[in-house]
Amino acid sequence: MVFIGNSPVVFNNIRHIYPLKSEELTKYLKKSDIFITASQKDPCSNSLIEALHCGLPAVGFRDGGHPQIIGKGGETFTRGEEILTLLEKIIKNYHQYQANIAVPSIEEVGEQYYDFMTEVYNKVQSGRQKNKSFGLMDYITVQTQLCYLKLCGFIGRLLIKQP
What SS3 class is residue 87? Predict the structure, then answer.
């Protein structure tokens, strides 16, 4: 087992690697088999999403956004004693768990944010969403964010199409 990142704990049976740059971390994750996270109250774990994008089934603490992010691409636990059993379950059905990993692309996430911002903006403009004040600066901010999100989706599509 390897722990990558900063830790106040000194491990006895776990190899500790200090934080890596993105490219190095990606290479390390792609060489790994299963990702384990026990973070709590984490609404959207970047490390979990990165691991799933690298094809790693995951075991995560049943809290925050972990259950929704992991979906059928892994298992969740509430007590540490459950982890070994869940690891065995994933190992026995490894390819099925890998096939069940369903994380959206950056393009899809950008489009979802864009759609959400557009929906909020339209509700405010039509009076269906009550806002204390929606002045010129708010309008400019929303329009800027909408343009930015559209641009991110466009850039994401360009990057994805590159070899």
Answer: helix
Contact between 43 and 37 (Cβ < 8 Å): no
Please write the tens of the pLDDT for every residue from 117-142.
Answer: 888 888 878 877 665 666 777 777 77
> What are the pLDDT digits (tens) for 39-96?
999 888 889 999 999 999 999 999 999 999 999 999 999 999 999 999 999 999 999 9
Contact by Cβ (8 Å): 87, 34: yes
CATH topology classification for 2-99: Rossmann fold (3.40.50)
DSSP state of 163: -
pTM of the entire predicted model: 0.71
Radius of gyration in angstroms for the set of CA atoms belonging to the chain, rounded to a whole number? 20
Phi, psi torsion values for 52, nearest 5 degrees = -65, -40
Segments in the chain forming alpha helices (H): 22-30, 46-53, 66-70, 83-92, 94-99, 106-126, 136-161
CA separation for the pair 50, 58 (Å, rounded): 11
The answer to whether 57 and 37 are in contact (CB under 8 A) is: no
